[in-house]
Structures are given as structure tokens and as C-alpha cells.
Amino acid sequence: MRKDWQNGGFGLYIHWPFCQAKCPYCDFNSHVVNQIDQDRWQAAYKSEISRIGSETKGRTLNTVFFGGGTPSLMDPELVHAVMETIRATWRTSNSFEVTLEANPTSVEAGRFRGYRDAGVNRVSLGVQALNDIDLKALGRLHSVAEARKAFDVARDTFERVSFDLIYARQDQSLADWKAELSEALAMAADHLSLYQLTIEDGTAFGDRYAAGKLKGLPDEDVGADLYLATQDMCEAAGMPAYEVSNHAKNGEESQHNLIYWTYGDYAGVGPGAHGRLTLDGERMATSTPLGPTAWLRQVESAGIGEETRVALSQDDIVSEFLLMGLRLTQGISLSRLKALSNQDFSFKINNLEELGLLSSRDGRLRVTSKGRAVLNGVLRELLND
Ligand SMILES: C[S@@+](CC[C@H](N)C(=O)[O-])C[C@H]1O[C@@H](n2cnc3c(N)ncnc32)[C@H](O)[C@@H]1O
Ligand code: SF4
């Protein structure tokens, strides 16, 4: 019988937790260190991949995602060795997607060929802004010119290129953002991730904000205007949103992220990496030690980098399925919801449809554009008893 995860596919996430410098807005699991023993990391990744492989024998792997941190600080030899282990562990799909996140500096662009030769076929560049003053304010180590050059090298090297921008920045007007976004759309990426700046606790921006020193951030209304303008401009340029913050040309959606959003199975390797794996008919949530040294030592000494493994309850599964799937423009399959849940959602769905926040047709449930503006409220309403 087909298992539920097969509706979403099977992917592998590999976390590289190091960066050259810590950006003031970032609360990802990323660290700045003096020395990295890449051979030790290579051995640990390989050992973890083999361990997970022995639990998922016979599966076809659809995607790999090297995320960070800054994976473009990895030696191409390390990526090569990891990819060899992956290919020896699983059969890979015909449309096998291998993404690596890269910072757009010239040094890193110099490694792109090596990554391609290792099997990477998609790169996601953290461009963040297309003006030098804002790049500086965001603590970035690259200029716009350097980012554009790295983008051109990526375009020449990889089949698929995506880049990230952060908007709703300090003192950014709607007109500024529109001008910048049209420059970004002219750059011929096939995928764009456009994130509104979030102020996270525990970051340098979080501290500055709490002290009242982070000025010029847009209020909620301006944020909503920026979001709507983003949707309209991307749509008009043939890069509609397929998820809240992600835009792609038709067929260029990130297959790896789609596994998360369509609630497939994924293994998480590396410090702080989460996984969702269906094993012996149960859906397991896995986690690993957050600290790079703690993770590395545990893999080396215990032969397993996993910290927790918990079987999800049916309620957990249904809420995760809805939380992830309703972020997508294509929404969720109602028959899959029915198969996963023993709850009848029709009353709640009807109410939210009457309010114009949800729409169900052709067997799918979607959040409308009105609903998207209050997505968290819609999800709360669906999931509350
Ligand atoms: C792991 S980082 C990307 C990889 C790479 N280290 C880089 O910075 O270019 C993933 C993306 O999340 C976004 N991001 C991180 N922190 C954010 C924040 N506080 N608000 C909005 N976007 C954020 C950035 O666009 C960043 O490119
Ligand atoms: S945004 Fe990227 S480069 Fe900056 S600290 Fe976070 S992961 Fe590192």
C-alpha cells in the first residue's frame, strides 16, 4: 500500500553550521570559528548518511539540500565525498535535485565548478539586497557588484539558480523596494526567495530593537503593502508565488522545500537538523544536538548523531500537514487530509470559506489571498478544538 509520505517524496538535508561572520539579523544555527577540520566533518556526514541509509533501504532519494550556515565554505572535496556516499546509499530519482546555499563572494564563486562536478545542480545565493548601503547595514561581507558577478558565475555553472532577498528593511520605502525588485526580476534567476526582515530575539538586531535603537522599520500596514506589491510584480514577471515567500518560473520550484511543504519524508544530518521519517509504519520526528562540536563528538563517539526520536501522534501529523501544506499556493489534497485524520473538518472549512479565507475546489483546499494576509489566524481556527 502507498504510504502517506510518498505523496511528498524523500529528501536529505545536510546542515553546515559555519559562517565567515554572523549577520546581525540571523538566528540560524551558524557559528564563526577559527579552524574547521573538514576531514572530521566529512567522516561524520558519511557515517550519518550510511546509518540513515540502513534504516531507509530501497527508497529513492528525490533531493539533497546543503543548508547552513554557509555551505559554500565547504571544500568541494568534502561535497564530492558526501555525494559519493549518497549515491552509494540510495537510488536517486530521474529529476534528482541537489541544492547548495552559497554566499555571493568571489572566493565562493571560485568553488562553484567543484560543487557542480560533485553533483550539485542547483545553487541558492544569499544576495539579500541590491544596494550597498543596505548590504552594509545587514552586515554582509559582499557588495552588489560582487553578488552580481557570483550570480553570473552561478548562471554559467549550474542548471538552476535561485537567490534570496530580504525586504521590509530599515528606511526602505515601497518605491525603493519596487525598483530593487524589478532589478532582481531582470536578473533571470529561475527562483526567488523573498523574505520580510524578521527581528529575532537573541540576535544583534533583536537586542538593538529591544533597546529602541533599530529605527525605520516598516509598520504592519507598510509591510502588507510591500508584500502585495511583491506578489503582483513577481506574478507579472512570470514568477508567481508558489509558497508564502517563494517564487518560481513554472517547473522551477524547489523540489526539496516542496517535500517539507507537501509533508514528505526527510532525513536531517548535521547539528540542529530535524527529520521526519516514516519507519515501521510510524512517523518519527528526529533531532540532533545543536552545537557543532557536540554533534561531531557524538557521531564520533556513539556512531549516531541523533538526539531525540519521537513518534508523532495523529493530531501532530494532521496539524503539521496543514501548517506546511497551506503555505503553498496549490494548497492541500482534501482526500489526503481525510486519510490522515479521523476528524471532520467540513464545518470549520465551510465557516472559513464563507469568510472568504479558504477555498475548496477540485479536491484541494487553498488559502485565498485575503486568507494569506491572516494565515496564522486561519491555521489557528482550523486547528483549535
Ligand atoms: C541560511 S541563510 C542563507 C545562506 C547563506 N548563509 C547566506 O546568508 O547567504 C537562509 C536565508 O534566510 C534569510 N534570513 C535569515 N534570517 C532572516 C531574518 N531575520 N529575516 C528575514 N530573512 C532572513 C536570508 O535571506 C538567508 O539567505
Ligand atoms: S544569514 Fe547566512 S551568512 Fe549570515 S549568519 Fe546567517 S547563515 Fe551565516
Automatic annotation (TrEMBL):
Does the UniProt entry include the keyword Acetylation?
Answer: no
Q: Where in the cell is it found?
A: Cytoplasm
Q: Name one GO biological process term.
A: porphyrin-containing compound biosynthetic process
Q: Which InterPro entries match?
A: Aldolase_TIM, Coproporphyrinogen-III_oxidase, Elp3/MiaA/NifB-like_rSAM, HemN_C, HemW-like, rSAM, rSAM_sf
Per UniProt, the keywords (alphabetical) are: 4Fe-4S, Chaperone, Cytoplasm, Heme, Iron, Iron-sulfur, Metal-binding, S-adenosyl-L-methionine
Q: Which domain of life is it from?
A: Bacteria
Q: Tell me which PROSITE patterns the record gives.
A: RADICAL_SAM (PS51918)
Q: Which residues form the Radical SAM core domain?
A: 4-240
Per the record, the major location class is cytoplasm
What cellular component terms from Gene Ontology apply here?
A: cytoplasm
The UniProt entry's coiled-coil ranges are none
GO terms for MF = 4 iron, 4 sulfur cluster binding; coproporphyrinogen oxidase activity; metal ion binding
Q: CDD domains per the record?
A: Radical_SAM (cd01335)
In terms of SUPFAM superfamilies, this protein maps to: Radical SAM enzymes
Cofactors needed by this protein, per the record, are: [4Fe-4S] cluster
Q: Which family does it belong to?
A: Belongs to the anaerobic coproporphyrinogen-III oxidase family. HemW subfamily.
Annotated function: Probably acts as a heme chaperone, transferring heme to an unknown acceptor. Binds one molecule of heme per monomer, possibly covalently. Binds 1 [4Fe-4S] cluster. The cluster is coordinated with 3 cysteines and an exchangeable S-adenosyl-L-methionine.
- This chain belongs to the protein called Heme chaperone HemW
User: Could you read off the lineage of the organism from its UniProt record?
Assistant: Bacteria, Pseudomonadati, Pseudomonadota, Alphaproteobacteria, Rhodobacterales
